[in-house]
Amino acid sequence: MNAYDELMEFARTTQALAQVAGRLGWDQETMMPRAAAPQRAEEMAAMEAVLHARRTDPQVGAWLEAAETTGPVQVANLRLIRRDFERARKVPARLAAEIARVTSMAQGVWARAREEDDFAAFAPTLKEVVALKREEGAALAEGADVYDAMLQDYEPGATAAGLEEMFARMRPRLVALREAVLDKPAPTALTGTFDEGAQMRLARQVAKTFGYDMARGRVDKAVHPFSSGSGLDVRITTRTNPVDPFNSLYSTIHEVGHGAYEQNIHADHLLTPVGQGVSMGVHESQSRIYENQLGRSEAFAVWLYGQMREAFGDLSVPDAQALYAAINRVGSGYIRTEADEVHYNLHILLRFDLERDLIARRLEVGDLEAAWNERFATDFGVAVDRASNGVLQDVHWSIGLFGYFPTYTLGNVYAGCLYEALRRDVPDLEGALSQGDLSPATDWLRDKVQTHGGLFQPRETIARACGEEPSEEPLLRYLEEKFGGLYGV
Questions:
Q1: Is residue 252 a contact partner of residue 284, using CB atoms and an 8 Å limit?
Q2: What is the superkingdom listed in this entry's lineage (predicted)?
């Protein structure tokens, strides 16, 4: 074999081991007995030690130097392996294993603190996580901006300054839309009690309707919905609430967007660096367009109304139009994952600012809850009533995902661009959605975005799909048009 072939054989084994580590994480959130947490932490640390050793193996550097490429897939694989190799070499093996061990334990501590609404019980563990991530970030940055270095794990090429500029352009229009909408009477909410078993059956049906392949996946329940895996084993989770079926339904559709992306990457890329989503921003563009532009559309509500009546019996709303209004009801709720489209990005801006301050040492963990509550009251006009509705609601910081949150809004921006192009390319999109036929939309997304995996850079992936460079304008136009029509503003 030549150098490239030897490198790819080594990389495939590394990718397979990373998938095994991911499966351990999936099990921890879905099936693992609570008392197993200390052992699982050691298992995760052991796996990370093995993966770190492979990613920093000097032979990888030698192969990279010697490898010759003959096409774009080979070029992309080398680019991705080189990026991981150079980043991994900057982080000591001891630190990588310790982060894996501590974040595995921290996840359970967070879950218990969330159940008990007790941030103080979680704060010492979070302080340890933050200290480790600051150390890792400093190693990666090598004197440059630490938060920028962290962003590269989730959105290669992004910078905090660039995101801050984009968010600053978005914020005034989001706030103006929020104020205009909240000044109008709210539509009737969906009320009642909804059997949780029926919710799960509907969730699985909707997952398949959106193209999720159950032969290569499964739908389970977790405290915080997530997706896991790639290729032939892509799993998603959701959650249920007996008085809010939208929670389950739209968590499922969101995670199906992630899962479908991984399932639809070209089969030739299986267990290679190219065979995964290119970035979390692009990943979020898929989950958000599935959930919002498609799943919360007026046309889809026509089909969904009939499915919900079959699942739950008569509903408190009289028809599909009323269901559409209820699905898109705007309110200053506490929970990011349940937020309407008008408020969602304001939730992200809050987290972006707080985590940047944490990493930069402008904010310490002991002051985080107060800082969160103060900012939330300013942005949403509501006082946080308990920690599970505030600083403890998200799992991300407990598992060290600093730099992840801004990719949610970046994903919304990308989704706005993709939706404009989709509507242009699929003229009868609404007719298909009203019949519960998602294939014109999901086939377009598969061909334009998903099949490529990591072949192109993140922004290039979106630009190629849309025919122009991504910007926040399509998203803002979509929001203003949609909610302006719903609320008469």
A1: no
A2: Bacteria
**Annotated domain spans of the chain:** 3-144, 160-487
Please name the fold of domain 160-487: Neurolysin; domain 3 (1.10.1370)
Determine if residue 284 is labeled as part of a ligand binding site. Answer: yes
Catalytic residue among 255, 338, 420, 472: 255
Q: Tell me the whole-structure pTM to 2 decimals.
A: 0.94
Q: Is 266 annotated as contributing to ligand binding?
A: no
Q: Cβ(43)–Cβ(72) under 8 Å?
A: no
Return per-residue pLDDT of the chain as tens, 489 residues: 899 999 999 999 999 999 999 999 999 999 999 899 999 999 999 999 999 999 999 999 999 999 998 899 999 999 999 999 999 999 999 999 999 999 999 999 999 999 999 999 999 999 999 999 999 999 999 999 999 999 999 999 999 999 999 999 999 999 999 999 999 999 999 999 999 999 999 999 999 999 999 999 999 998 889 999 999 999 999 999 999 999 999 999 999 999 999 999 999 999 999 999 999 999 999 999 999 999 999 999 999 999 999 999 999 999 999 999 999 999 999 999 889 999 999 999 999 999 999 999 999 999 999 999 999 999 998 999 999 999 999 999 999 999 999 999 999 999 999 999 999 999 999 999 999 999 999 999 999 999 999 999 999 999 999 999 999 999 999 999 999 999 999
CA gap 115, 375 in Å, rounded: 23
369 is catalytic: no
Q: Residue 351's closest CA among 137, 90, 106, 167? A: 167
Picking from 45, 146, 57, 136, the residue whose alpha carbon sits closest to that of residue 91 is: 136
347-359 burial string, b = 16+ CB within 10 Å, else e?
A: bbbbbbbbbbbbb
Residue 224 labeled ligand binder: no
Closest CA relative to residue 479, chosen from 428, 388, 413: 413
